[in-house]
Recover the amino acids of this structure.
């Protein structure tokens, strides 16, 4: 049966075609995953920058403690729902928790603390509710000392998207 050159060419073509498309599929999967994680990272960077800018402005007016109190009592949006998958927290260099998002406070939990980092550091960890989450950790300098800001987002939707792509 495989003596015909026509059959050999068809089989050869199917093998090469399958290998090429498998390689393309693997490339597209990892590229999509990279883009989606990059979007999550951008959102987290925006969150920490907004919190740091707000507290810097409050600190310039001598009202850092008041600013921290306001940040901890956000009562609307995704950060206000218990274990919503959207979190933030601020702590000192000594590991003293100053602020947790209401989504963490309502569940009486916290994100895993990381070491200080003056440049944004991204990690994928197991967060509240044993869900995979992406976190950013960045330390900012304030007159009272370094404050470490963390923001986190659940990867549940990202994983669901990637599973559907698979």
């Amino acid at each position: 049966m495989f003596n015909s050159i026509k059959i050999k060419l068809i089989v050869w073509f199917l093998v090469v075609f399958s290998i090429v498309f498998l390689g393309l599929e693997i490339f597209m999967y990892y590229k999509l995953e990279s883009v989606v994680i990059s979007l999550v990272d951008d959102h987290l960077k925006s969150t920490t920058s907004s919190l740091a800018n707000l507290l810097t402005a409050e600190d310039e007016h001598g009202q850092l403690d008041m600013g921290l109190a306001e940040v901890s009592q956000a009562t609307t949006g995704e950060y206000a729902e218990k274990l919503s998958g959207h979190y933030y927290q601020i702590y000192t260099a000594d590991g003293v928790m100053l602020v947790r998002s209401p989504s963490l406070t309502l569940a009486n939990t916290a994100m895993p603390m990381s070491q200080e980092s003056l440049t944004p550091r991204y990690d994928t960890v197991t967060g509240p509710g044993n869900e995979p989450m992406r976190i950013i950790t960045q330390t900012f300098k304030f007159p009272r000392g370094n404050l470490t800001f963390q923001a986190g987002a659940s990867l549940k939707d990202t994983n669901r998207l990637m599973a559907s792509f698979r």
User: Anything to note?
Assistant: The two ends are 36 Å apart (CA to CA). Strands lie at 86-92, 97-100, 121-126, 132-142, 145-154. The first helix runs from residue 5 to 60.
